[in-house]
Give the backbone structure.
Amino acid sequence: MYNKAKEIKKIHLETGKPIWEIAIEKDIENTGATREEILKTMHLTLDVMKDSAYKGLDKAIISMSKITGGNAVKLNNYKDDAVCGPTIARAMAMALSVSEVNASMGRIVAAPTAGASGILPAALFIMQEKYGYDDDKLVEAMIVAGVIGEIIAQNASISGAEGGCQAECGSAAAMAAAAICYLRGYEIDTLFAASAYSIKNILGLVCDPVLGLVEYPCNLRNASGVVNAMISADIAMSGFPCLIPLDETIDSMRQVGNSMPEALRETALGGIAATPTAENLEKEMEDKYKHDEKEATK
């Protein structure tokens, strides 16, 4: 494991190896797996990501609760008219697709969590569509993203119950931003800057799932999360100076998460989860459950 971004940078400068190579070597050391086995697993993981990112673009996928679903296909169909342009709109649609697959009990990759699972896949596959990177290159970028996620997990949190949605969608955006910069061929400082910007842009975001389900506003935050990653990458790649480095940004993320009240950390007791509409939905769901249970016992 790596504890800090500066430790990764030190190894990179001493060895000249890219982040993903450093990570593979550490994984070999920790697990005893071969390089070929690790890369095979990563390609299988990428395949699952790809399936979930595209599954909802052409057909409506409805959640188990029926309160969300079908929005990925709507946004994908709308992309050519989008104010933000077709690339961003399609990336948002991909992120929504993964969220909808997750909410329908489909197969996704927690990256780093199920609630934020659409951000990294959307970033990877929109880059593949736009620039033509092959799956081998996407796997390298995915490993880079994993290193960022590991650093955040070691020093802050990737759990909404512990650190709010900044810990889930913020971490995922930071991972995706680094992956984007890696794919575009930028150096390690730019990757870390992009990750730092992604966290700064979302610092303090609460976790307030309606009905306590990983659906809403999780799906919206996956869509906005991939946009956060894309704009953060562009800001970093433009040469924008990173005033507060990644390690310190992650430390601030931990401090903010620790300061959040319990009601705003995945308990569904605050935020939009506590709105009148959300409370009415909860009552409707409870009444339906009681009715179905009664019918089942007849």
User: Anything to note?
Assistant: The two ends are 56 Å apart (CA to CA). Residues 35-55 form the longest helix (21 residues). The mean pLDDT is 96.
